[in-house]
Amino acid sequence: MSKKVLIMTQNFYPVIGSAGNRMKNIFQLLNQHKIETVVLTTEPAYPNKNLYKDPKFWDDEELNKEKQKIIRVPIKTNKFSNHIINRLFFYLEIMVRFLLVLWRIRKEKYDFIYVSTPPIFIVFSAFIGKRIMKSKLILEVRDLWPDSLVGVKAFDYPFIINIFRLLETKMYRIADYIVINSLGFTNHIKKKLKNKETTMIYLPNGPRENEIIETKDYNGEFKVVYTGNLGLAQDIDRLKQIATILDQNHIRFEVIGYGMKTEDFISYLNKNNIKTVQVYQPTTRKKSLELIKNSNIAIAFLNNDEIFSTVLPGKIIDYMTCKTPVIAGIKGVAADLIEKNNAGYVFKENDVAKMVEQILDLKNDKDKQLQLGDNGLRIIKEEYLWEKNINKLVDLIRNY
Protein backbone atom coordinates (compact mmCIF):
# COMPACT_ATOMS: atom_id res chain seq x y z
CA MET A 1 0.00 0.00 0.00
CA SER A 2 1.29 3.45 -0.94
CA LYS A 3 2.28 5.70 1.94
CA LYS A 4 0.73 9.15 2.33
CA VAL A 5 2.58 12.24 3.54
CA LEU A 6 1.40 15.72 4.56
CA ILE A 7 4.09 18.42 4.33
CA MET A 8 3.46 21.49 6.48
CA THR A 9 5.57 24.49 5.57
CA GLN A 10 5.49 28.26 5.34
CA ASN A 11 8.00 28.13 2.47
CA PHE A 12 6.85 26.59 -0.79
CA TYR A 13 6.85 27.35 -4.50
CA PRO A 14 6.97 30.05 -5.75
CA VAL A 15 8.59 31.51 -2.62
CA ILE A 16 12.21 32.49 -3.32
CA GLY A 17 15.13 31.22 -1.28
CA SER A 18 16.56 27.81 -0.39
CA ALA A 19 13.72 26.84 1.97
CA GLY A 20 10.99 27.23 -0.64
CA ASN A 21 13.07 25.42 -3.25
CA ARG A 22 13.80 22.62 -0.77
CA MET A 23 10.15 21.98 0.03
CA LYS A 24 9.26 22.04 -3.66
CA ASN A 25 11.88 19.38 -4.41
CA ILE A 26 10.79 17.12 -1.56
CA PHE A 27 7.13 17.42 -2.62
CA GLN A 28 7.82 16.66 -6.28
CA LEU A 29 10.30 13.85 -5.73
CA LEU A 30 8.22 11.99 -3.14
CA ASN A 31 5.28 12.05 -5.54
CA GLN A 32 7.55 10.81 -8.34
CA HIS A 33 8.46 7.89 -6.08
CA LYS A 34 4.73 7.03 -5.79
CA ILE A 35 4.47 8.32 -2.23
CA GLU A 36 1.28 10.36 -2.23
CA THR A 37 2.33 13.74 -0.86
CA VAL A 38 0.18 16.77 -0.09
CA VAL A 39 1.53 20.14 1.01
CA LEU A 40 -0.17 22.54 3.42
CA THR A 41 1.33 26.00 2.99
CA THR A 42 0.51 29.70 2.91
CA GLU A 43 -0.02 32.09 0.07
CA PRO A 44 3.48 33.22 -1.01
CA ALA A 45 4.50 36.14 1.19
CA TYR A 46 8.28 36.27 1.62
CA PRO A 47 9.67 38.89 1.40
CA ASN A 48 6.27 40.38 0.47
CA LYS A 49 3.04 39.29 -1.21
CA ASN A 50 3.22 41.85 -4.01
CA LEU A 51 6.36 40.23 -5.40
CA TYR A 52 4.33 37.22 -6.52
CA LYS A 53 1.94 39.24 -8.64
CA ASP A 54 4.67 39.00 -11.26
CA PRO A 55 3.96 35.86 -13.34
CA LYS A 56 7.68 35.18 -13.82
CA PHE A 57 7.81 33.58 -10.36
CA TRP A 58 5.11 31.08 -11.34
CA ASP A 59 7.39 29.29 -13.78
CA ASP A 60 6.57 25.64 -13.02
CA GLU A 61 3.52 24.67 -15.11
CA GLU A 62 3.23 21.28 -13.42
CA LEU A 63 2.76 22.92 -10.02
CA ASN A 64 0.60 25.70 -11.41
CA LYS A 65 -1.90 23.08 -12.56
CA GLU A 66 -1.81 21.12 -9.31
CA LYS A 67 -5.03 21.78 -7.39
CA GLN A 68 -5.56 18.66 -5.29
CA LYS A 69 -2.20 18.26 -3.57
CA ILE A 70 -1.38 21.88 -2.70
CA ILE A 71 -3.47 23.49 0.05
CA ARG A 72 -2.75 27.20 0.44
CA VAL A 73 -4.10 29.18 3.39
CA PRO A 74 -4.54 32.96 3.14
CA ILE A 75 -2.74 35.28 5.52
CA LYS A 76 -3.60 38.89 6.32
CA THR A 77 -0.04 40.17 6.45
CA ASN A 78 1.03 41.84 3.19
CA LYS A 79 4.70 42.11 4.11
CA PHE A 80 7.07 39.87 6.03
CA SER A 81 7.90 42.18 8.93
CA ASN A 82 11.44 42.67 10.20
CA HIS A 83 10.21 43.54 13.70
CA ILE A 84 10.52 40.52 15.96
CA ILE A 85 7.18 41.00 17.74
CA ASN A 86 5.29 41.50 14.48
CA ARG A 87 6.99 38.41 13.09
CA LEU A 88 5.89 36.35 16.10
CA PHE A 89 2.28 37.36 15.50
CA PHE A 90 2.75 36.48 11.82
CA TYR A 91 3.88 32.98 12.80
CA LEU A 92 1.05 32.61 15.30
CA GLU A 93 -1.47 33.52 12.59
CA ILE A 94 -0.05 30.80 10.34
CA MET A 95 -0.17 28.28 13.20
CA VAL A 96 -3.85 28.98 13.88
CA ARG A 97 -4.78 28.79 10.20
CA PHE A 98 -2.92 25.50 9.80
CA LEU A 99 -4.76 24.10 12.82
CA LEU A 100 -8.09 25.01 11.25
CA VAL A 101 -7.16 23.12 8.09
CA LEU A 102 -5.92 20.12 10.06
CA TRP A 103 -9.24 19.95 11.87
CA ARG A 104 -11.09 20.12 8.57
CA ILE A 105 -9.11 17.24 7.02
CA ARG A 106 -8.75 15.26 10.26
CA LYS A 107 -10.50 12.16 8.87
CA GLU A 108 -7.99 11.76 6.08
CA LYS A 109 -5.30 9.19 6.76
CA TYR A 110 -1.71 10.43 6.58
CA ASP A 111 1.06 8.03 7.54
CA PHE A 112 3.48 10.90 8.07
CA ILE A 113 3.40 14.59 8.77
CA TYR A 114 6.58 16.30 7.54
CA VAL A 115 7.19 19.69 9.14
CA SER A 116 10.14 22.05 8.97
CA THR A 117 11.63 24.40 11.54
CA PRO A 118 12.10 27.35 11.80
CA PRO A 119 9.62 28.77 12.63
CA ILE A 120 8.83 26.64 15.65
CA PHE A 121 5.14 27.59 15.82
CA ILE A 122 4.18 25.62 12.72
CA VAL A 123 5.76 22.60 14.40
CA PHE A 124 3.31 22.96 17.28
CA SER A 125 0.39 22.75 14.89
CA ALA A 126 2.01 19.59 13.45
CA PHE A 127 2.15 18.11 16.97
CA ILE A 128 -1.60 18.48 17.22
CA GLY A 129 -2.00 17.08 13.72
CA LYS A 130 0.07 14.07 14.74
CA ARG A 131 -2.40 13.31 17.53
CA ILE A 132 -5.53 14.06 15.52
CA MET A 133 -4.47 11.92 12.55
CA LYS A 134 -2.40 9.36 14.47
CA SER A 135 0.50 10.03 12.12
CA LYS A 136 4.23 9.67 12.57
CA LEU A 137 6.03 13.03 12.70
CA ILE A 138 9.14 13.78 10.64
CA LEU A 139 10.75 16.96 11.94
CA GLU A 140 13.09 18.76 9.55
CA VAL A 141 15.64 21.06 11.19
CA ARG A 142 16.97 23.80 8.88
CA ASP A 143 18.20 26.09 11.64
CA LEU A 144 19.13 25.68 15.32
CA TRP A 145 16.38 27.93 16.62
CA PRO A 146 16.33 29.79 19.06
CA ASP A 147 20.15 29.88 19.21
CA SER A 148 20.22 31.48 15.76
CA LEU A 149 17.87 34.17 17.06
CA VAL A 150 20.39 34.93 19.81
CA GLY A 151 23.24 34.77 17.29
CA VAL A 152 21.90 37.66 15.22
CA LYS A 153 21.14 39.64 18.39
CA ALA A 154 17.57 40.18 17.26
CA PHE A 155 15.94 39.21 20.54
CA ASP A 156 17.37 40.00 23.96
CA TYR A 157 14.92 38.61 26.50
CA PRO A 158 16.74 35.78 28.37
CA PHE A 159 13.61 34.57 30.18
CA ILE A 160 11.71 34.12 26.92
CA ILE A 161 14.75 32.58 25.18
CA ASN A 162 14.97 29.99 27.98
CA ILE A 163 11.30 29.14 27.42
CA PHE A 164 12.01 28.79 23.71
CA ARG A 165 14.89 26.42 24.49
CA LEU A 166 12.59 24.23 26.59
CA LEU A 167 10.14 24.16 23.69
CA GLU A 168 12.99 23.30 21.32
CA THR A 169 13.94 20.28 23.44
CA LYS A 170 10.30 19.19 23.59
CA MET A 171 10.09 19.53 19.81
CA TYR A 172 13.02 17.18 19.21
CA ARG A 173 11.73 14.63 21.70
CA ILE A 174 8.21 14.49 20.28
CA ALA A 175 9.45 13.89 16.74
CA ASP A 176 9.47 10.29 15.53
CA TYR A 177 12.19 11.03 12.97
CA ILE A 178 14.50 13.99 12.40
CA VAL A 179 15.88 15.30 9.10
CA ILE A 180 18.81 17.74 9.10
CA ASN A 181 20.25 19.77 6.22
CA SER A 182 23.65 20.26 7.88
CA LEU A 183 25.80 17.69 9.71
CA GLY A 184 26.76 20.52 12.04
CA PHE A 185 23.38 20.16 13.75
CA THR A 186 23.96 16.56 14.84
CA ASN A 187 25.66 16.98 18.22
CA HIS A 188 23.36 19.83 19.29
CA ILE A 189 20.24 17.77 18.62
CA LYS A 190 21.64 14.61 20.23
CA LYS A 191 22.37 16.56 23.41
CA LYS A 192 18.78 17.77 23.47
CA LEU A 193 17.47 14.24 22.90
CA LYS A 194 19.62 12.90 25.77
CA ASN A 195 18.87 9.17 25.99
CA LYS A 196 16.06 9.11 23.43
CA GLU A 197 16.97 7.11 20.33
CA THR A 198 15.55 8.94 17.32
CA THR A 199 16.43 8.10 13.72
CA MET A 200 18.19 11.07 12.13
CA ILE A 201 18.92 11.41 8.41
CA TYR A 202 21.05 13.95 6.59
CA LEU A 203 19.31 15.50 3.59
CA PRO A 204 21.36 18.49 2.41
CA ASN A 205 20.22 21.22 0.07
CA GLY A 206 21.32 20.66 -3.47
CA PRO A 207 20.48 21.04 -7.14
CA ARG A 208 18.28 18.94 -9.39
CA GLU A 209 20.09 17.14 -12.19
CA ASN A 210 18.74 19.58 -14.78
CA GLU A 211 20.31 22.52 -12.89
CA ILE A 212 23.89 21.27 -13.19
CA ILE A 213 26.18 23.60 -15.15
CA GLU A 214 28.55 21.47 -17.24
CA THR A 215 30.23 24.22 -19.27
CA LYS A 216 31.26 27.73 -18.33
CA ASP A 217 32.71 30.58 -20.36
CA TYR A 218 35.56 32.45 -18.65
CA ASN A 219 36.29 34.82 -21.55
CA GLY A 220 33.78 37.60 -20.83
CA GLU A 221 33.98 40.52 -18.42
CA PHE A 222 35.35 39.48 -15.02
CA LYS A 223 32.47 39.52 -12.52
CA VAL A 224 31.92 38.77 -8.85
CA VAL A 225 28.51 37.73 -7.55
CA TYR A 226 26.57 37.51 -4.30
CA THR A 227 23.09 35.99 -4.08
CA GLY A 228 20.60 35.47 -1.30
CA ASN A 229 19.44 36.99 1.92
CA LEU A 230 20.82 40.28 3.20
CA GLY A 231 19.89 39.99 6.85
CA LEU A 232 21.36 39.97 10.33
CA ALA A 233 23.14 36.66 9.81
CA GLN A 234 24.97 37.72 6.64
CA ASP A 235 27.30 40.41 8.04
CA ILE A 236 26.25 43.26 5.75
CA ASP A 237 29.14 45.49 6.87
CA ARG A 238 31.63 43.07 5.29
CA LEU A 239 29.60 43.11 2.08
CA LYS A 240 29.83 46.92 2.03
CA GLN A 241 33.60 46.75 2.42
CA ILE A 242 33.88 44.20 -0.40
CA ALA A 243 31.75 46.43 -2.65
CA THR A 244 33.95 49.45 -1.91
CA ILE A 245 37.25 47.72 -2.62
CA LEU A 246 35.98 45.98 -5.75
CA ASP A 247 34.75 49.35 -7.01
CA GLN A 248 38.19 50.85 -6.39
CA ASN A 249 39.64 48.06 -8.53
CA HIS A 250 37.02 48.57 -11.27
CA ILE A 251 35.59 45.06 -10.83
CA ARG A 252 31.93 44.46 -11.59
CA PHE A 253 30.01 43.14 -8.58
CA GLU A 254 26.47 41.79 -9.04
CA VAL A 255 24.12 41.23 -6.11
CA ILE A 256 20.74 39.53 -6.03
CA GLY A 257 19.66 40.48 -2.56
CA TYR A 258 16.55 40.45 -0.46
CA GLY A 259 15.89 40.76 3.26
CA MET A 260 15.88 43.37 5.95
CA LYS A 261 19.32 44.87 5.16
CA THR A 262 18.84 45.27 1.41
CA GLU A 263 17.82 48.94 1.51
CA ASP A 264 20.69 49.67 3.89
CA PHE A 265 23.13 48.16 1.38
CA ILE A 266 21.66 50.08 -1.57
CA SER A 267 21.71 53.32 0.42
CA TYR A 268 25.40 52.76 1.19
CA LEU A 269 26.19 52.27 -2.51
CA ASN A 270 24.38 55.47 -3.47
CA LYS A 271 25.86 57.53 -0.66
CA ASN A 272 29.39 56.46 -1.56
CA ASN A 273 28.87 56.77 -5.33
CA ILE A 274 29.82 53.15 -5.96
CA LYS A 275 29.17 52.54 -9.66
CA THR A 276 30.47 49.04 -10.38
CA VAL A 277 27.92 47.27 -8.16
CA GLN A 278 24.57 46.29 -9.62
CA VAL A 279 21.80 45.19 -7.27
CA TYR A 280 19.08 43.08 -8.86
CA GLN A 281 15.53 42.71 -7.63
CA PRO A 282 14.63 39.27 -6.26
CA THR A 283 14.18 36.88 -9.16
CA THR A 284 13.51 33.23 -9.95
CA ARG A 285 15.90 30.44 -9.07
CA LYS A 286 16.53 29.79 -12.77
CA LYS A 287 17.63 33.38 -13.41
CA SER A 288 19.68 33.45 -10.21
CA LEU A 289 21.61 30.34 -11.27
CA GLU A 290 22.15 31.92 -14.69
CA LEU A 291 23.69 35.00 -13.05
CA ILE A 292 25.99 32.80 -10.94
CA LYS A 293 26.99 30.81 -14.02
CA ASN A 294 27.99 34.01 -15.82
CA SER A 295 30.19 35.14 -12.92
CA ASN A 296 33.83 34.29 -12.25
CA ILE A 297 33.81 34.41 -8.46
CA ALA A 298 31.06 34.13 -5.84
CA ILE A 299 31.27 35.39 -2.28
CA ALA A 300 29.57 34.43 0.98
CA PHE A 301 29.56 35.79 4.51
CA LEU A 302 28.07 34.74 7.81
CA ASN A 303 27.90 36.42 11.19
CA ASN A 304 30.83 35.52 13.46
CA ASP A 305 28.62 34.00 16.17
CA GLU A 306 29.55 30.37 16.90
CA ILE A 307 26.05 29.08 16.11
CA PHE A 308 26.59 29.89 12.42
CA SER A 309 29.54 27.50 12.25
CA THR A 310 26.93 24.70 12.12
CA VAL A 311 25.16 26.13 9.04
CA LEU A 312 25.65 25.14 5.39
CA PRO A 313 24.17 28.06 3.38
CA GLY A 314 22.26 27.08 0.26
CA LYS A 315 24.03 29.79 -1.74
CA ILE A 316 27.37 27.97 -1.39
CA ILE A 317 25.85 24.82 -2.89
CA ASP A 318 24.40 26.96 -5.71
CA TYR A 319 27.78 28.55 -6.38
CA MET A 320 29.46 25.16 -6.66
CA THR A 321 26.61 23.84 -8.83
CA CYS A 322 27.42 26.63 -11.30
CA LYS A 323 31.18 25.88 -11.31
CA THR A 324 31.86 29.25 -9.70
CA PRO A 325 34.78 29.40 -7.21
CA VAL A 326 33.79 30.54 -3.72
CA ILE A 327 35.50 33.23 -1.66
CA ALA A 328 33.97 33.06 1.81
CA GLY A 329 34.22 34.74 5.19
CA ILE A 330 32.84 31.83 7.19
CA LYS A 331 33.85 28.98 9.48
CA GLY A 332 32.70 25.53 10.50
CA VAL A 333 30.76 23.17 8.25
CA ALA A 334 30.62 25.46 5.20
CA ALA A 335 34.31 26.33 5.45
CA ASP A 336 35.21 22.63 5.62
CA LEU A 337 33.18 21.88 2.49
CA ILE A 338 34.99 24.55 0.47
CA GLU A 339 38.50 23.81 1.77
CA LYS A 340 38.40 20.00 1.74
CA ASN A 341 37.17 19.96 -1.85
CA ASN A 342 39.42 22.81 -3.04
CA ALA A 343 36.39 24.68 -4.40
CA GLY A 344 37.54 28.13 -3.32
CA TYR A 345 39.17 29.97 -0.43
CA VAL A 346 38.04 30.58 3.12
CA PHE A 347 39.05 33.51 5.33
CA LYS A 348 38.27 34.77 8.78
CA GLU A 349 35.11 36.82 8.80
CA ASN A 350 36.94 40.16 9.10
CA ASP A 351 39.69 39.47 6.53
CA VAL A 352 38.03 41.52 3.79
CA ALA A 353 41.31 42.84 2.37
CA LYS A 354 42.70 39.30 1.99
CA MET A 355 39.48 38.17 0.35
CA VAL A 356 39.73 40.90 -2.27
CA GLU A 357 43.44 40.17 -2.74
CA GLN A 358 42.52 36.58 -3.54
CA ILE A 359 39.85 37.74 -5.97
CA LEU A 360 42.43 39.91 -7.77
CA ASP A 361 44.84 36.97 -7.99
CA LEU A 362 42.14 34.76 -9.49
CA LYS A 363 41.19 37.44 -11.99
CA ASN A 364 44.52 36.87 -13.71
CA ASP A 365 44.42 33.06 -13.48
CA LYS A 366 41.64 31.55 -15.61
CA ASP A 367 43.10 28.07 -15.28
CA LYS A 368 42.79 28.27 -11.49
CA GLN A 369 39.21 29.53 -11.78
CA LEU A 370 38.41 26.54 -13.97
CA GLN A 371 40.09 24.09 -11.60
CA LEU A 372 38.27 25.39 -8.52
CA GLY A 373 34.96 25.37 -10.39
CA ASP A 374 35.46 21.78 -11.56
CA ASN A 375 36.32 20.70 -8.01
CA GLY A 376 33.15 22.24 -6.62
CA LEU A 377 30.93 20.68 -9.25
CA ARG A 378 32.48 17.26 -8.73
CA ILE A 379 31.49 17.09 -5.04
CA ILE A 380 28.02 18.42 -5.86
CA LYS A 381 27.47 15.55 -8.31
CA GLU A 382 28.81 13.01 -5.84
CA GLU A 383 26.97 14.06 -2.69
CA TYR A 384 24.38 16.80 -3.19
CA LEU A 385 22.00 15.86 -6.02
CA TRP A 386 18.37 15.75 -4.92
CA GLU A 387 17.60 12.80 -7.16
CA LYS A 388 20.15 10.72 -5.20
CA ASN A 389 19.59 11.99 -1.68
CA ILE A 390 15.79 11.80 -1.70
CA ASN A 391 16.17 8.00 -1.52
CA LYS A 392 17.12 8.34 2.15
CA LEU A 393 13.71 9.85 2.89
CA VAL A 394 11.90 7.49 0.53
CA ASP A 395 13.42 4.47 2.30
CA LEU A 396 12.52 5.84 5.73
CA ILE A 397 8.88 6.30 4.69
CA ARG A 398 8.53 2.99 2.85
CA ASN A 399 10.14 0.94 5.59
CA TYR A 400 7.80 2.21 8.29
Describe the protein in words.
With 400 residues, this protein is of the alpha/beta class. It contains 15 helices and 13 strands. It has a seven-stranded parallel sheet, sandwiched between helices. A six-stranded parallel sheet has the order 10-9-8-11-12-13, with helices on both faces. The chain starts with a strand and ends with a helix.
Short description:
This protein has 400 residues and is an alpha/beta fold.
List the helices and strands and how they pair.
Elements (H helix, E strand, L loop, with lengths): L3 E5 L9 H15 L3 E7 L18 H5 L4 E4 L10 H21 L7 E6 L2 H14 L2 E6 L5 H5 L6 H17 L2 E4 L5 H8 L5 E4 L20 E7 L6 H13 L3 E7 L3 H10 L5 E4 L4 H9 L3 E5 L12 H8 L4 E4 L3 H8 L3 E4 L4 H12 L2 H18 L2 H13 L2
Parallel strand pairs: 1-2, 1-4, 2-3, 4-5, 5-6, 6-7, 8-9, 8-11, 9-10, 11-12, 12-13
Helix pairs in contact: 1-15, 3-4, 8-13, 11-14
SSE class: alpha/beta
Q: What share of the residues does DSSP label as strand, in percent?
A: 15-25%
- Strand tally is 13
Uncertain stretches: none
- Our count of helices gives 15
Widest beta sheet: strand line-up = 3-2-1-4-5-6-7
Q: Could you state the order of secondary-structure elements as H and E? A: EHEHEHEHEHHEHEEHEHEHEHEHEHHH
Which whole number gives the mean pLDDT? Answer: 89
**Radius of gyration over alpha carbons?**
21 Å
How far apart are the termini? 12 Å
Estimate percent helicity: 40-55%
Biggest sheet record: 7 strands, parallel
C-alpha geometry:
globular
